[in-house]
Amino acid sequence: MSEQVLAALARYGSPALFAIVAIAAVGVPLPVTLLLIVAGSLAAQGAMNVWSAVAIAAVGSVAGDQIGYAVGRWGGSRLVARLSGMIGSPDRIRELDAKAKSWGGAGVFFSRWLVAPLGPWINLVSGAAEYSWLRFTLWDFLGESFGAGLFISLGRVFSDRVQAIDAILGDLTWAILGLLAAAFLGWKLFFRRATG
After folding, report:
1. Is the CB of residue 146 less than 8 Å from the CB of residue 92?
2. Of 116, 109, 98, which Cα lies nearest the Cα of 136?
3. Range in 2-11, 126-135, 166-175 with the lowest mean pLDDT
4. Among 25, 101, 133, 167, which residue has the least CB neighbours within 10 Å?
5. Which residues are CB-contacts of 69 (< 8 A; sequence separation ≥ 6)?
6. Which domain holds residue 93?
7. Exposed, middle or buried by CB within 10 Å (0-12, 13-18, 19+), for 112?
8. pLDDT score of 171
9. In the chain, helix, strand, coil percent, each to 5?
10. CA 80 to CA 167: how far, in whole Å?
11. According to the model, what pLDDT value does residue 18 have?
């Protein structure tokens, strides 16, 4: 899959960058981090303007995120009923709604670049929880802009080591997700033991 995505970027440039990041933001698993790093490498070689690449990647990602938010927001109770089969009971859905509201902007911001695999789910849950669209869009744009700028800059600075940077960032993302999952499970066990 990576080869096709990178070939599209090399062949079509900015339109491919926009389309790929938008599709990935909706939830299709595409190698966006690698794509942004390669875009930075292309900028270092003069084949792409770095500021245009950051803007296009940020706007494309926000467009995809808006689709996920809208599906969650306007899917309403039917979407919640369908998701409850995958996530758990309706009580679990209400718990996720409460968490989405309490995380607010920080949850949206960090899920754009630090724990990006959670981004599409955060979009849906934010919409279903009726988190303010204006706040969602603000934090979404800030997070996507920061993430695009970060990964494109890394690709620009380390243009001769693109694959190595992508591997390190992929491992780091999964390590962070693992730590978050372990902390969450530990917290749940602690409170279950304390109340039981």
Report:
1. no
2. 109
3. 166-175
4. 167
5. 123, 124, 126, 127, 133, 136, 140
6. 2-195
7. buried
8. 63
9. 85, 0, 15
10. 36
11. 97
Cβ-based burial of 14 (10 A; exposed 0-12, middle 13-18, buried ≥19): middle
Number of domains in the chain: 1
The torsion angles phi and psi of 159, rounded to 5 degrees, stand at -60, -20
Return the closest-CA partner of residue 96 out of 72, 75, 64.
Answer: 72
CA dihedral 173→146→27→75, nearest 10 degrees, is 130
Residue 14 corresponds to which amino acid?
S
Q: Which residues have C-beta within 8 Å of that of residue 113, sequence separation ≥ 6?
A: 143, 144, 146, 147, 150, 151
Are 106 and 146 contacting, i.e. CB atoms less than 8 angstroms apart?
A: no
CB 43 within 8 A of CB 152: yes
pLDDT tens per residue across span 18-53: 999 999 999 899 989 889 999 998 999 899 999 999
- The secondary structure of residue 11, as a DSSP letter, is H
- Global model pTM greater than 0.85: no
